[in-house]
Amino acid sequence: MADNKKMSVAEILAAARAGGGKSGAAPKPAPVAAPEAEGDAGSEPAAPVAAAAKPAAAKPAPKGDGSRPSVADILALARAKKGEGEAAPAAKPAAAKPVAAEKPAAKPSAKPAAAVAKGGPKTGVQRDTASILAAARAGAKPGPVSKADAPARPAPKPKPAVEKAAEPVRAAPPMPVKPAKPAAKKADDEDRRGFLQIALGSFMAMGFTALSVTGGLFTLGLARYLFPNVLAEPPSRFKVGFKDGFPSGKVETKFVAQYGVWVVNGEFSGQQQIYALKTVCTHLGCTPSWLEAEQKFKCPCHGSGFYKDGINFEGPAPRPLERYAIRTADDGQLEVDKSRAFQEELGQWADPDSFVTV
Ligand code: FES
How many A from CA of 291 to the centre of ligand 1? Predict the structure, then answer.
């Protein structure tokens, strides 16, 4: 059969033509089928060839009726002729085997994936995991394995330093240098910050100071309200000096501001006396003024006038001025006592405590 396959079409046609001359003797298909059957016993793939030969043998061969044979008939005839001449070598299993050996060789190309997937018998090309692992342990190349079974890739070897050193070193471009901030600006910022801090501190200090002052004033006002002022009046008794310090007819006015008293050396009821007149107008309490030129006391409020001895003579004043008690103290000085007053209309000026004789 291997020889039959190797026949070219021209050989087949030549054989057919040669056989055509002997058309009277129809070729027997049996001799052809026998070797095929022997081949089939040895291997399964030979079956198609036998099947292909059988139809030719089953078909009735042309009997030389003059009709043109078909291609199948020609092929069957050629094979029959060939079989007759080469019956001995074709019957050898060695000649049929190659066909059987070639057939399985073509199959693995289509079956490996399915066979591996189904866990079926492994072919020579496709190996199972055990064989791959065994080959890997033996150091052989495992062949195609799954990604999961693949061994970890060895870490890439670091490049030798020499290679790096050999590489041309690119000089880094010079970085633009930032201009340094002027120190004056920094100093100005610090000064401004310090000034703001000082100003804020000053404002706070001023606020607290104002609050403290206000609180103090409020406390003082409250204390003053709770404890009213006490008039610091001069003592009721005070010394005005010696008698010779008051000449006759003289009105001393230097004690008016401090003590509210005129010390007069004058004549009253035909007697020269030194007495102390109260500086309060008997009209409504104003303070009259001594008019040296007019020798009288004149009240500026309503015009009341008083003589040097204190007798009222003009204006609305209803009565004379009053006198304070006066005496000669132990040291010889005249001492005025304002705690005691003497009124002329009451006859009190006759009291010796109301004057000092000269
Ligand atoms: Fe002196 Fe009126 S108070 S005249």
Answer: 16
User: Using alpha carbons only, what angle is made at residue 313 by residues 309 and 316, rounded to the nearest 5 degrees?
Assistant: 120
Which atom, in ligand 1's list, is nearest to the CA of 302? Answer: 4
- Per-residue pLDDT tens over the stretch 39-65: 443 444 444 444 444 444 444 444 444
Which amino acid makes up residue 36? E
Containing H/E element for 341? strand 334-342
Mean pLDDT of 22-31: 42
Model pLDDT, residue 53: 41
Contact 57 CB / ligand 1 (< 6 Å): no
Task: Report the atom number in ligand 1 closest to the C-alpha of 288.
Answer: 1
Is this prediction's pTM over 0.70?
no
Residues forming CATH 2.102.10.10 domain(s) in the chain: 237-357
Give the pLDDT band of residue 73 (cuts 50, 70, 90). Answer: confident
Q: What DSSP string runs through 160-207? A: PHHHHHHSPPPPPPPPPPPPPPPHHHHHHHHHHHHHHHHHHHHHHHHH
Question: Which of 315, 312, 245 has its CA nearest to residue 277?
Answer: 312
Please name the residue whose Cα sits nearest to atom 3 of ligand 1: 284
Kindly state if the Cβ of 301 falls inside 6 Å of ligand 1.
yes
Q: Which of 41-45, 211-215, 256-260, 274-278 has the lowest mean pLDDT?
A: 41-45
312 lines ligand 1 (CB under 6 A): no
Does ligand 1 come within 6 angstroms of the Cβ of 304?
A: yes
Q: Which of 298, 302, 314 to mutate to test the pocket of ligand 1 (most atoms within 8 A of CB)?
A: 302
Instruction: Measure 260 CA to ligand 1 centroid, in angstroms.
Output: 16
Query: Which of 278, 279, 284 to mutate to test ligand 1, by most ligand atoms within 8 A of the CB atom?
Result: 284
Give the tens place of pLDDT for each residue, 219-272.
998 888 887 776 666 788 999 999 999 999 999 999 999 999 999 999 998 999
CATH code of the region 237-357: 2.102.10.10
Q: How far apart are CA 324 and CA 278, in angstroms?
A: 7
